Structure formats: structure tokens, C-alpha cells
Predict the 3D structure of the following.
Amino acid sequence: MAVTLTLLKEDARSGARRGRLRTERGVIETPVFMPVGTQATVKAMTPWELERLGVGIVLSNTYHLYLRPGAEVVAAAGGLHRFMGWDGPILTDSGGFQVFSLGDLRKITEEGVEFRSHIDGSRHLFTPERVMEIEAALGADIIMAFDECTAYPAERLQVKEAAERTSRWAERCLAARRNSGRNPAQALFGIVQGGMYPDLRRQSLNDLMSMDFPGYAVGGLSVGEEKSLMYEILDGLVPLMPRDKPRYLMGVGSPDCLVEGVWRGIDMFDCVLPTRVARNGAFYCRDGRRAIRNAQYKEDWRPLDPECDCYACTRFSRAYIRHLFMSGEILGLRLATIHNLRFLTRLMEELRQAIEEDALEEYRRRFFLRWKER
Amino acid sequence: MAVTLTLLKEDARSGARRGRLRTERGVIETPVFMPVGTQATVKAMTPWELERLGVGIVLSNTYHLYLRPGAEVVAAAGGLHRFMGWDGPILTDSGGFQVFSLGDLRKITEEGVEFRSHIDGSRHLFTPERVMEIEAALGADIIMAFDECTAYPAERLQVKEAAERTSRWAERCLAARRNSGRNPAQALFGIVQGGMYPDLRRQSLNDLMSMDFPGYAVGGLSVGEEKSLMYEILDGLVPLMPRDKPRYLMGVGSPDCLVEGVWRGIDMFDCVLPTRVARNGAFYCRDGRRAIRNAQYKEDWRPLDPECDCYACTRFSRAYIRHLFMSGEILGLRLATIHNLRFLTRLMEELRQAIEEDALEEYRRRFFLRWKER
């Protein structure tokens, strides 16, 4: 098997687990947050900076790389790792969520999804088999099965059909990999769908478990529902997931959701949020998200987050970074990105330590005493 | 005196000099290229990166910092060095060139220049006295006198009047600093004007030399004239400049002009070009400037410049950097900026070494055998 999870500790009062995920390109300490490098780059960051921030694995997008520069170009480079200069583990998603997000530009059939490129309008077809080919060419360490995501809210019947199709496509992904024999070192994870219907979630998970994937993802959450509903779904689902396999909650990455996801037994997370809000001038503090353009920071000589150890916080003031944003300077969004990523990698370090020390409940309590939605 | 130049070597066949400029914030090896940090940041770069690239001194713009965030904010930070997190020497220009560039938005009188902000249209007045106040508040190591630049082409009478006014303003700058006693550690450089008229240039230089500045700049070149005309002006002017004082050619920084300027005895250069063209996707090679978006680089796995030792060139391919530019990714312009700045700091290192080894003529010959205007 291409990845193996070793559980170092399980929390007695919650579902939380402290683990170690071994891949051919290094060991990932879990629970882990994975920054998103949509187009083979975590926006505004170098691989060297990511390493220094304590990033253990990055995610990249099959849909985007397929369209530009093309999987054949990445393959000609020797794969995604060499192409983007990142030696550590990489996970590629399957493009399922991206083509779902195209709305009117895509048409779903049993065969697959026909869609038009958001770049030039050209027509393309993603099938489970084709996606397995593309992901093999990109060469990530962990790859995702091609799935059908549903919106929120959605009718039960529609969600059921999407979840069942996702199971059939998962079978086809497995078969395609078996038949082609391509890149066997990659680990293929299945994706649980089923929207906000607990029984559909259970059915989807059971379908996938019968196929025995090396890891299981929860897709189709954080698509517009209340956070409390997402937590409810996780409460009903995660305890049923295989104990010895990694559990990955897709597209979730705000600090409070990371704490709640870890509490419920999730091992892996990804999200564009921390880097996207950074480019818009929002930075994380222990008491919530703040906007650097706010006039209150004009002569604030403190770091973005006085408790942070990142380059932005140890070297520059809020006043200076505000000036950079007000002036449209790239360094501003670089520093905010560095800080937000470090905020999350550090949060995960603390969560891991808290599990190890049997202190997760207390850590979570203290976290939410300070954290405010703003 | 706040800066002192020690000449280590003078080239026998040209006017070139190898020197060492001592400031309170460190020693600058000359000839030197100074990257421009218009708004208190060399665009897209961190101070740490600049240091690693071998940058010895950066330039920043009085006009821009006065408008945003305001000199009082920079002063409250403890000066420009602390504000922008750069511990090395800084030079601020006087805003003369910027207000000149405003065209219809400014009106020049003997008193000074009335202008409207390019940001919000608000009215402002720069006089020599006011500019000295602002530059003292910013706190750079080297500051420039307030001057009047002329366009090219321009009538002799207009150029003469501007050069004469520049001399009178230079006197007022000196007097203002004497009277205020502000920030005496700063070195104030005078700026020679006189357009493309050799006798006006000589007159301007003589005026300034009678005031005994610790350094002399050549302004009003590279404003649209042929390079050969710029070189002619330098040929007539530089030999008359004080031997023991630094000579600074303002706004010039393309690789070929650096070689020709050094050959003629210039010690300091600045220019936005290497960083600006980088953001537009142009990168320097030994044989000239190239455009990374060119289709020929789509699967070119070589570095931007195979002879370069920078982070961009030792880690990434042209194909990858092209992909970043085609995809609008910030990392693309970061890597191109790193490379272009390293190209220039390395060129200056080589020029310094060539002077030391009596090999400048040969170095220059070889440089122009390869370099092509593209």
C-alpha cells in the first residue's frame, strides 16, 4: 500500500487521533492541514517558504492542471513534484468539485461529466477512467476518485443519485487503475457523498468501505450549510469510518472548523480560505479574523498576531503591512499569506500536542473562549 | 561626513573605479546597482531576499512615501529602515523627478512645485526646505537635493533655466539642513542637470561643486534620448566630477547601460526597469532580454538563465515559470524579479572584480559580443 497510517494516540473523550501517515515522499504528522496549490503553486508562496512554515503536504487541482499547462506538460517535466519544485508529498483532487462548480458549463451523465473550460470555452469530458489517467500522469502521492458533489440545499433524490453514482464511479476508478497498472505507488482515496442526509452518508461510506480504499474523504460539506449542520453530519459519519485509515475532510480550513474536525476524528483538511482571505487583507488572530485595511491599524506597531513566530510577525508591523495593502504592494499579500498559513500549521501542531498530552478538551475549551466569528 | 568613499582601484584605460562607500548602516561596494523600493518595498521582494541577492543599498521615493503612508507615519515607526524592515543603507530621492513626471498635475515656480496627488488629487507644495524636512523624517542614509528635471527633447533656454533653478534649490537644501540641524548623519547629494547640452551640464556641475556636496548625481538622463547621446553626455561630464566623491547616475539600470556607465566612472545606479520588466514576464540572459510567455518556452526545462545562481534558476524551469505567468500566478513574477535582480547584482560583482583585476576592457568586450538589444 502506498500510504500507511500509524495511530500514535487516540483521545479518550472525543474521536480525535494523533497519527503518522507514511508516504514515499515523507512522513506526514496528522491531523494535518494541507494548503492548496491550485495551479501547481500555493498562491504567492515558494516551496522553500512552505517548508519553513511547517507544511507537510500540499494539494493541487487536477481540473486546473489538465487545462493548463496540460497533464502531458507536467508529465514531461517528470511529474508535478519536479514541475513545481516541491519534494514533499502532494495530493491531487479529482476535478469532481471543480466541474460541479462550473454550473451551466457542465453536463453530468453516467459516463462522466462533459464541461467547457473556464479559460477558453473548449469542450472536455471527464470520466472516472480519464481522471485516473490524468492523475497518474501528474504523479501525486495521494489521488482522489472522481465523484459527483451536490449543492446545498438539494432534494433527497438528487443527493441519493449523486452518491450512488459516486460509488459506481469509485468502482470504475479502482478498475481503471487495476487494468492500466499505471503509477501503482499512488494511493487512491474514495470520497463519501450523501449531502446532509445521515442515512445517505452511511450508505455512501458502506459502498466505499466494501471496495477497501487506503483512505476515505468526506466530500460535499462546507458547501453553504451552517457549521452546526456540518458538525452533525460528521458526528454521525466519522465514528463509522475505518479506524486504521486516514480520514480527510475536503474543503474545510477555517481555524474553528479545524478544531471541531480534529475533535471529531478527522486526520486531513484542505482549504483555499487561509490563502485567499490573506490576499484580500484578512489575517488570523487568536480571537478571530481581522481586516488589515482597517484604519485602526494605521499606526499599530504590533505584529499581525503578537503570539505568532512567522517571518511576517517577527519582522513587520501591522502599520507597515496595512501600508502595503493600501498601496497595492505584492509584499503585503505575501506577508499575510505567510502568517495565515503559519497560523494554521501552528494550530495543527498544538492540536497534535494536545492529543498527545490528553489535553484536547481543555485546548478546545480555551480556543473557543477566545475565538470569535467576525 | 556621513558617507565616505575609498577608492580601491582606478582602471587605467577608462574612467572606471572600484570603491567602498562607508555609511553608518554598512559598507557599500561600488560600483553598485540600487533596486528601487518606491513605496517602502522593492516590489514583490522581502528584505531577506534582497540581502540574499547581494543587494547593498535600496532606494525609496520621497514623493510616494510623503503621500502614502505619510512621512509622519514613517517617522513614528522609527524611520524608514524600521518601517520596512531593511537594516542596510537606504537612499531617498527628492521627489523632483516624480513631480516632473506628473505633467499637467504640477506647476513649477521659483518657490517650488505645486502639484496634485496622483492618488486623490489633493494639492501639495514641495519646496527645497519642505523636501529636506520630509527626507529628514524618513531618515535614509543618503538623501537627494530637490531638483528640476527637464524632458527630452527640450529647448536650450528651458533646460538652462531648470539647471540654474536646480542650483539655487541645491543652495536652499543645504541652508535648510544647516538651519534646522535635523538628522545631520544623512549625506545630501547634489543633482547635476543640463539636459543634452554639454556646456549646461558643466555649468550645473560647477555650481554644485562650489557648494561641496558629499556626493554628486547625474539627473535628467535616460528620459527618452538615444543611449549613444547619454554616453556622450557622460563622456563630457564624468571626468570633471570630483574624484573622491561618489558619482550616481539616476534612473539607469539596463545591463548594457550599467557596463557603459561603470566604464565611464559611475559608482551608483538605480532603476525600476529590472523589477518592472520582471513583473511583465521579461527576464535577462547574457544575450539579452527574453519574454517568458513566448511559446518556445512551453517545454523548456532549462533555468531562466543557465549561468545564474539565483533561487529561481537553481530550482525552477522556464516551462514552469511560463506556466505561472500564463496562469497569472504571483510566484511567476516573484521568480522573475529574483532572477533579474540577481542578474544585475552579479553583473556588478563581475564588473567590480574586472576592475580589480585590470580586466574591465576585456570584460566589456566579451559582454557586448553576447548582449543583443531585443
